[in-house]
Specification:
heterodimer; A: 6-stranded antiparallel sheet; 10 strands; globular; disordered C terminus; B: about 150 residues; mainly alpha; Helicase, Ruva Protein, domain 3; 6 helices; heme (chain B); C-type_cytochrome_biogenesis (chain B); CcmH/CycL/NrfF/Ccl2_sf (chain B); Cytochrome c-type biogenesis protein (chain B)
Chain lengths: ~650, ~150
């Protein structure tokens, strides 16, 4: 009964979305306030109904209602409760329901907080958002209905994919969707502005928090996925340049670009049409990401047409929204008049360079991801574009970006002197150079990777500190420290996010340059050395889990006479799904991770044991957390509080950012 | 989701990347083997090299690489040998020839294009109202002279 109720709520939400997509748009064109106002209750009702629908599906998972096909395929009564819940979105149908729920949620925020928006803009934004929602609800209802029943329910389910029964991966998809779908909001704002024929500072003020939120969620989602790969796949890789990863990375890159160009629109009323284009493309890449992930098109070339029907429908949705967006852009972009002008040495110019680098970097990822397909279709070559290509083609952009970042962040708007900024940054620059030189000297002429990475890391963190310090005026240091505390949160957010970028860069370079590895057969009781650490395989036991069996090793770690701790690497078998997984035993440290994996029992006795020393591994995710934290700080700034936005829409004065 | 299914299928054979019994006794050869393997794709995986992959096919390839190295092949010969058998598809780094040049040049080409457009934009917007007026053209200068003379 509850299931049918959920199904019905979804159908009703679809109908409301259709109304919301048409009536307010007509109302805005004809200037009929009543018609425009329809959008507001509609957006709220739509959100409420989809929430109910989602709750109904969650309920079915929690009580293990095996009359539901989706529950049978993805759940099991023995599964811990948290994975019963995460099982709701651990599959195609349920995750699409989560997707439309988030579309509606973002729409509802405009209905709740958008009182200060011009009514016609608000109506149009909500109408475009409803079009996106309606398209995906149609997709859901007609090709991937989560509420299908089975005539003969089985006794138990087939269990959720064991790899998904993991805290990292349980929350990886929802965050990614929040990010992907957050970009739908900026897309709606972009299209609404094009229809309206007006982009001003108020518009930028509204787009920024949504971009920021989308970017924060994407950052968290990508970091969770990468962290999961690190500890779960058994050798500690953190990024594979896999098509599915690239699919989430391209929107991330574009949202970073959009975030920065929207600042220019808001503060300086410049770069308007470019920002609109970025907003359209950003959502386009989100849709491409969804398409790549769902269609199985690129995961492996052999999996082409894995799910042709769904893939084609998604491609159609993608094509319609992108065509509509781009055509509207071509027709209307000419009306966007830039107001603010700027000189060559200005923050605007630096942000233009930032955008060029990020957009081209995203383009490279895009081309590299799709190239195998193009080569096969047009040149009859079956080939692979793997990590070596991306490392070569992509990394330089991030290096250049890192080098110019602190300078751009401190240059004044409109017209500034790079020389004077460089003077205040000189201590940071020298420090970074010294660190790089020291590391170069220490590592006896190996690759340039580590020195460059450490240079960028130091330069970005120190640069962010110099920037903050520079905002505190010229009094004594006590007053300056006090003032630093009271700086606007947006300033702190910017500094923290930029420093986080540096930390991540340093972590990636450190891990890739200095990792060491040991593979061996060890008997229980054996001790051996890996890069100065003593590894002691003390015991190997069979341990039962709630819905799996584990082979668990007890490994004591020490350095010299100092004990570091004990880790318990596991190898698990999930009998229902018939799949093994590895759980690495990781001793996390600030400067290094010790990473131990237990393998198979060997014929001659003993166990295969792999040990890695992974320097600075945690910096990669630590940096990502800092970036997300910076985003949240900035979001919580008084100036960004959504409702406060449009009231103060004067663009002329440049506040102290 | 598809990728997980794929990983799972691969993990069904509980093997893992480079096992102790594969490692060659000669450390120099082993280092070369590892380097070569990290550039070869595991044919049944996502973008994983055979060095990282758990699949049994990857193990076969790793053993093959080592066999060829022990037989005295150069790194290049080993790679060519494997490409002959499995096709270009095994190379993680696409070759820089033929149509692939499009791939390799797409990034730099786009960068040049984008930098040009951006430079033109930044220059162009500087001479809009509000910034310094342009110098007079020759025609305008002559007319100004005429006007001044008339005064």
């Amino acid at each position: 009964m509850i299931t049918e109720f959920g199904h019905f709520a979804l159908i009703l939400a679809f109908c409301i979305a259709l109304v919301q997509a048409i009536v307010p748009l007509v109302g805005a064109a004809k200037r009929w306030p009543g018609w425009m106002a329809v959008a507001i209750p509609a957006a709220q009702a739509q959100f409420l109904l989809i929430t109910l629908s989602f709750a109904a599906l969650t309920y079915a998972f929690v009580v293990s209602d095996f009359s539901l096909r989706l529950v049978v395929l993805n759940s099991h009564t023995d599964k811990p409760l948290i994975y019963k819940i995460s099982g709701v979105w651990g599959n195609h149908e349920g995750s699409m329901l989560l997707w439309v729920l988030i579309v509606a949620l973002f729409g509802a925020t405009v209905a709740w907080f958008g009182t200060a928006l011009p009514p016609s803009l608000r109506a149009r934004v909500l109408a475009v958002q409803a079009m996106i929602g309606a398209a995906f609800m149609a997709f859901l209802l007609w090709t991937s209905n989560p509420f299908l029943r089975l005539a003969v329910p089985p006794m138990n389910g087939e269990d959720l994919n064991p790899l998904l029964q993991d805290p990292g991966l349980a929350f990886h998809p929802p965050f990614l969707y929040l990010g992907y779908v957050g970009l739908s909001m900026t897309f709606s704002f972009a299209l609404a502005a094009l229809i309206e024929g007006r982009v001003d500072a108020a518009w930028g003020r509204w787009v920024r928090p949504y971009t920021l939120a989308a970017w924060v969620f994407l950052t968290i989602g990508i970091a969770l996925g990468s962290w999961w790969a690190y500890y779960e796949l058994g050798w500690g890789g953190f990024w594979f340049w896999d098509p599915v990863e690239n699919a989430s990375f391209m929107p991330w890159l574009l949202s970073v670009a959009l975030l920065h160009s929207a600042i220019v629109v808001e503060k300086r009323e410049s770069l308007k049409s470019w920002t609109i284009l970025l907003a359209i493309l950003g959502f386009g890449f989100s849709l491409i990401g969804t398409f790549i992930t769902r269609s199985g098109l690129l995961t492996s070339v052999h999996a082409f047409a894995n799910d042709p029907e769904r893939g084609m429908v998604l491609l159609l949705i993608l094509a319609v929204f992108m065509m509509a967006g781009l055509i509207l852009f071509v027709v209307r972009a000419g009306t966007m008049q830039a107001r603010g002008v700027f000189g060559l040495g200005s923050r605007e110019t630096m942000l233009v360079i930032n955008n060029v680098l990020l957009a081209v970097a995203a383009f490279i990822v895009f081309v590299g991801t799709l190239w195998p397909l193009v080569a096969e279709m047009f040149f009859d070559r079956k080939l692979t574009v793997g990590a070596p290509f991306f490392d070569t083609a992509f990394t330089p952009f991030m290096v250049v970006l890192g080098i110019i970042l602190p300078v751009g962040a401190m240059l004044p708007w409109k017209r500034g002197k790079i020389g004077s900024v460089m003077r205040s940054l000189m201590p940071a620059f020298l420090l970074a150079l010294a660190v790089a030189a020291l590391i170069y000297a220490m590592q006896s002429g190996k690759s340039a990777l580590a020195p460059v990475g450490m240079f960028l890391g130091t330069w970005l963190v120190a640069g962010a500190l110099v920037d903050l310090w520079g905002r505190t005026g010229r009094q004594g240091w006590q007053q300056r420290l006090g003032r630093m505390r009271r700086l606007p949160r947006a300033d702190w957010g910017k500094a923290v996010a930029h420093a986080g970028m540096g930390v991540t860069m340093a972590g990636i370079a450190g891990l890739m340059a200095w990792e060491s590895e040991d593979i061996r057969v060890a008997q229980v009781g054996d001790r051996f050395e890996v890069s100065g650490y003593t590894i002691w395989l003390r015991a190997v036991n069979e341990v039962p889990g709630p819905n799996y069996r584990a082979t668990r090793a007890e490994v004591a770690l020490s350095r010299g006479s100092e004990s570091i701790g004990t880790v318990f690497p596991e190898k698990r078998i999930y009998p229902v799904a018939g799949m093994p997984t590895t759980e690495a035993g990781i001793d996390n440290g600030f400067l290094r991770d010790l990473y131990v994996v237990i393998g198979d029992k060997q014929e001659g006795g003993g166990w295969a044991v792999r040990t890695y020393v992974k320097p600075l591994a945690n910096w990669i995710w630590g940096g990502a957390i800092l970036m997300a934290l910076g985003g949240f700080l900035s979001l919580s700034d008084r100036r960004h509080r959504v409702a406060a936005g449009a009231r103060k829409s004067v663009a002329g004065g440049v506040p102290a950012e | 989701m598809k990728r997980l299914v794929l990983i799972l299928m691969l993990m069904a054979a509980p093997l893992w990347a480079v096992e102790p019994d594969e490692v060659l006794d000669d450390p120099a050869l082993e280092t070369r083997a590892r380097e070569i393997s990290s550039g070869l794709r595991c044919l049944v995986c996502r973008n994983e090299s055979i060095d990282e992959s758990n699949a049994s096919l990857a193990r076969d390839l790793r053993l093959l690489v080592r066999e060829r190295l022990v037989a005295g092949d150069s790194d290049r010969e080993v790679v060519d040998f494997i490409v002959d058998r499995y096709g270009e598809y095994v190379l993680l780094e696409p070759r820089k020839d033929g149509a692939n040049l499009l791939l390799w040049w797409a990034g730099p080409g786009m960068l040049i294009l984008a930098a040009l457009v951006a430079a033109l934009y930044v220059r162009g917007q500087r001479v809009q109202p509000g910034s310094e007026p342009e110098a007079l053209s020759a025609d305008e200068a002559r007319r100004l002279d005429e006007v001044m003379k008339d005064e």
